[in-house]
Write a structure and sequence with these properties.
The complex is a heterodimer of chains A (about 550) and B (about 260). With about 550 residues, chain A is mainly alpha-helical. In chain A, helix 8 runs parallel beside helix 11, helix 11 packs antiparallel against helix 12 and helix 12 runs antiparallel to helix 14. The longest helix of chain A has about 35 residues. By secondary structure, chain B is of the alpha+beta class. Chain B folds into two domains: about 60 residues, no CATH class; about 140 residues, Cupredoxins -  blue copper proteins (Immunoglobulin-like, Sandwich). Chain B is built from five helices and ten strands; from the N terminus they run H-H-H-E-E-E-H-E-E-E-E-E-E-E-H. In chain B, helix 2 packs antiparallel against helix 3. The chains are: A mainly alpha (about 550), B alpha+beta (about 260). Chains A and B meet through helix 4, helix 8, helix 10, helix 11 and helix 12 of A and helix 1, helix 2, helix 3, strand 7 and strand 9 of B.
């Protein structure tokens, strides 16, 4: 059945003009149905958003460097925290993983392209529109949304002219994600190389398959929540308005029913990337491939039943609190399995430390620290103290920056030679790694102390006893921001290095390394031979 | 602007000399339950440290010993059911050890029966309103004058020169030591959250909903906190001050209030 679908797909391509290679000029990008081109666009878009969101983080950290207001007014500060989060979550991290998926999933499973190439084009090109709309709110009367990325009513209903634009852009982001997810599911289910059973799939494909189901399950929930906000604001409904008999807390339940799976949407593909890289540079097979799959599936399932741990202070019944606390703690078990498996993969390997491996090792270390603070946050009475403080800010930045973002960086370095056909500059890559790692810790580690000492999050100014750690965090943040310019330099000079071999890395494994470097515009136009494929899996 | 940038860069040394307070940990607070919360926090923390030592220890040994440059040859194993059962079971046991005392504390936290007094706390953008249910006492509590002037952009006032910058109010809440105080929370506009770290109480004040929490202070003193739920532009400027006084002083405070009204 797999072969049939692939053949049908090839015929479709033959009828098209794609065999001549890419179009010339802007048309190549605007009308592209090629998974590699679309993947590249996703990645460039994501990097752009990473810098825009990062610039907002620089505004935030500059203002917080010392007590007193120096640079911005509180209204604008709140706009920055809100926009920073929306852009980083929906504009930087998620599209980066979709970009990696577009590039690598067809190569990893031996498919000629994504299953639904035109929809692929559409799901990318919605994104610049969505973020164009969101960013345009910066110039509107009343400014950007300033009620936090969580958009809690009634506060979010006080947003100025930006309000409907916020809702519309979130809808567009959701549509884009859902289409991307459908595409990945259809591709993975139908277009695998012959003999590639589900359990033989590489971990990156597995984690993305699970992520795609999470996306399909929860993005419509977010769309529903924001639509209710829209009707509350403009059409006289009272879903969340107490005065009309509504319930503001209901929004939080709906939002976090989306929001908690969302955090796994941002971390599961990262698990996949790291699970590809560590075996390559440890020159040893991934330990416990199947249990990794089961662990990721468990995490995905549990992510649906823990949402209210974001809401331990809203006044839930005791039984509710207990349920959500126990369920949340349970997530530590499959997450632990993943970490132990990575460590067991390294154990008695033959390790080298190229840039992708360095980022992956930092991922394992620092994501684990984020996991520890996550376990602490699960303890409900302690969470009451941590909730909405810098402790939480430290926690989720540890899992998102040296977690997701480092995994994206690791993936970029790992596959860059396959994309460009040249080796990047290893010395500069290592410089990027070390400065990022030092500064990311300098930024986020002191935030734990700030939160425990009593500093709430989302405040533009603070009492003087919090000044020392804030100053350190600000210095770290500016250092981290500047370090990312090194990454841009690596990308810009990526084609100047020596030619890459097809395998690129000594310990590489998998179908993506059987095609030439750079990967030709069309790959696997006929499915790979079962024998070759099998060798690649081993 | 330039001056401020330089100040930012020098902030570390400046701050160090002006008011060195490297608070690293959660305060133990002044109620039995805040101490229990602190103890739970420390218990999970030490579990994390222990797990971290094991996991990071194994990883670091591996990073040092099993590297190609040291001539390490990679092993071929890629599965061990025994190991996987062990490292699934041990975390489950640790979680049970954590969750039992936690659940006990949670039951106590929810037991607000038979209070000695009740205070209704209403969040406003951006101040708090307190109403003592058993008397006529009610008042708004806003950011203290000294901070209001210093907080403005380019105010020219050094925050370090303001006592309790952003953590001082005009009218503090006064409660007697030893009494079981029940707090009822609601809001007049958007969601706020009433947080005093020393009492280990953080509860959302939500329009249309009444939440409750309680505490029994064991020590007298002044305890400060802030709104913890983003509530608009002045979210950072609606602090909370709770003064715990001896019962006699509290009675005197109530009388003086009655006389005023």
């Amino acid at each position: 059945m797999n072969t049939d679908v692939s053949n049908a797909h090839d015929e479709h391509h033959d009828a098209d003009h794609d065999d001549h290679g890419p179009d010339k000029g802007i048309g190549r990008w605007l009308f592209s149905t090629n998974h590699k081109d679309i993947g590249t666009m996703y990645l460039i878009f994501s990097l752009t958003m990473f810098f825009i969101g990062g610039a907002m983080a620089m505004v935030i950290r500059s203002e917080l460097a010392i007590p007193g207001l120096q640079f911005v007014h509180p209204e604008f500060f709140n706009q920055m925290t809100t926009m920073h989060a929306l852009i980083m979550v929906f504009g930087a991290v998620m599209p980066a993983f979709v970009g990696l998926a577009n590039w690598m999933i067809p190569l990893m499973i031996g498919a000629p392209d994504m299953a639904l190439p035109r929809m692929n084009n559409w799901s990318f090109w919605i994104l610049p529109v969505a973020f164009g709309i969101l960013l345009s709110t910066l110039f509107m009367p009343g400014g950007s949304p300033a009620g936090g990325w969580t958009m809690y009513p009634p506060l979010v209903l006080q947003t100025g002219d930006a309000f409907p634009f916020l809702i519309f852009s979130v809808h567009l982001m959701g549509i884009s994600s859902i289409m991307g997810a459908i595409n990945i599911i259809v591709t993975v289910i139908n277009m695998r190389a012959p003999d590639m059973s589900l359990l033989k799939m590489p971990m990156f494909v597995w984690t993305w398959l699970i992520t795609a189901y999470l996306l399909i399950a929860v993005m419509p929930v977010l769309a529903g929540a924001v639509t209710m906000l829209l009707t509350d604001q403009f059409f006289g409904t009272s879903f969340f308005l107490a005065a009309g008999g509504g319930d503001p807390v209901m929004f939080q339940h709906i939002f976090w029913f989306f929001g908690h799976p969302e955090v796994y949407i941002m971390i599961l593909p990262a698990f996949g990337v790291v699970s590809e890289i560590i075996p390559t540079f440890a020159r040893k097979k991934l330990f416990g491939h199947d249990s990794m799959v089961y662990a990721a599936s468990c995490i995905a399932f549990l992510s649906f039943i823990v949402w209210a741990h974001h809401m331990f202070t809203v006044g839930m019944p005791l039984t509710g609190q207990l349920f959500f606390m126990f369920a949340t703690m349970l997530i530590a078990v499959p997450t632990g399995v993943k970490i132990f498996n990575w460590v067991a993969t390294m154990w008695r390997g033959s390790m080298t430390f190229e840039t992708p491996m360095l980022f992956s090792l930092a991922f394992v270390f620092l994501f684990t620290i984020g996991g520890f603070s996550g376990l602490m946050l699960a303890v409900a009475p302690a969470d009451v103290q941590y909730h909405d403080t810098y402790f939480v800010v430290a926690h989720f930045h540890y899992v998102l920056v040296p977690g997701s973002v480092f995994a994206i960086m690791a993936g970029a370095y790992y596959w860059l030679p396959k994309w460009t056909g040249h080796m990047y500059n290893e010395t500069v890559g290592k410089l990027h790694f070390w400065s990022s790692t030092i500064f990311v810790n300098l930024t986020f580690f002191p935030m734990h102390f700030l939160g425990l000492a009593g500093m709430p999050r989302r405040i533009p100014d603070y009492s003087t006893q919090f000044s020392d750690f804030n100053t350190i965090a600000s210095i770290g943040a500016i250092g981290f921001g500047l370090s990312q310019l090194i990454f841009v330099w690596v990308i810009l000079t990526a084609k100047q290095g020596p030619k890459a071999t097809d395998r690129v890395w000594e310990g590489s494994h998998g179908l993506e390394w059987t095609v030439p470097s750079p990967a030709p515009y069309h790959t696997f136009e006929t499915p790979p031979q079962a024998r070759i494929a099998n060798e690649a899996f081993e | 602007m330039i001056r401020n940038t330089i100040l930012s860069l020098l902030g570390l040394s400046l701050a160090g000399t002006a008011k060195a307070d490297w608070a690293l940990n959660m305060p133990k607070g002044i109620t039995d339950l805040s101490l229990e919360t602190y103890n739970l926090h420390m218990m999970v923390f030490w579990w994390c440290v222990a797990i971290g030592i094991v996991v990071f220890g194994v990883m670091i040994i591996s990073l040092i010993k099993h590297r190609k440059s040291k001539g390490a040859e990679s092993a071929t194993f890629s599965h061990s059911t025994t190991a996987e059962i062990i490292w699934t079971a041990i975390p489950v046991i640790i979680l049970i050890l954590i969750s039992v005392p936690t659940a006990e504390t949670m039951v106590k936290l929810e037991d607000s029966r038979n209070p000695d007094m009740s205070i209704v706390i209403t969040g406003y953008q951006w101040k708090w309103h307190y109403k003592y249910q058993d008397s006529d006492i009610e008042f708004f509590s806003s950011l203290a004058r000294s901070s209001v002037e210093a907080r403005r952009k380019e105010s020219g006032v050094d925050p370090f020169s303001v006592e309790n910058y952003l953590l001082d109010v005009d009218n503090p809440v006064v409660v007697p030591r030893g009494a079981k105080v029940r707090l009822l929370f609601t809001s007049n506009d958007v969601i706020h959250s009433w947080w005093v770290v020393g009492l280990a109480i953080k509860k959302d004040a939500i329009p249309g909903i009444v939440n409750e929490a309680w505490f029994r202070a064991n020590e007298t003193g002044t305890y400060r906190g802030q709104c913890a739920e983003l509530c608009g532009k002045d979210h950072g400027y609606m602090p909370i001050v709770v003064e715990v006084v001896e019962p006699e002083a509290y009675a005197a405070w109530v009388n003086s209030h009655d006389a005023e009204q």
